[in-house]
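Changelog-adjacent note: as of this version, every example in the card shows the full chain rather than a window. The one below runs 149 residues end to end.
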Amino acid sequence: MPLSPALPTIAEAIQASLSPVFVLTGIGALLNVLTGRLSRVIDRVRVLEERHPQIDLDERARLVWELRRLAKRMSVINFALFLAVASAVATCIVVALLFIGALTRSHIGPYVALSFILAMSLLIAAFVAFMIEVRLSSRAIRVRDELLH
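Full-length structure tokens:
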């Protein structure tokens, strides 16, 4: 009969991988928010591009400014999406390494730790990019003081 890891070893590997799996759930929620924001920006760009040929020169400068701002937001969102997906991949590597280590009884703890640090660093960077995009979007909206009184 071939040697196989004991059931408690497999159970320990499953328990150890639960935390990274919860991290994956959070990353999925972040990806959902980011793709929603990206689709709203794309919809706004399409509306503005349809209006572009029909506007006068005075309004064209404002329209170009807004399109540039939206293009910047799209690039920041895309970068945040890339970072979040890379974090998810690194988190999956952590889970795989946990199982490989448990099943083979090899000492790959440093690789697991490095993968987890990489996953968290990428996730932090994704959240920073998200924060920058939120800041860009809030700066684009200015309510004039005379409208508030």
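Structural remarks: The chain is about 85% helix and 0% strand.
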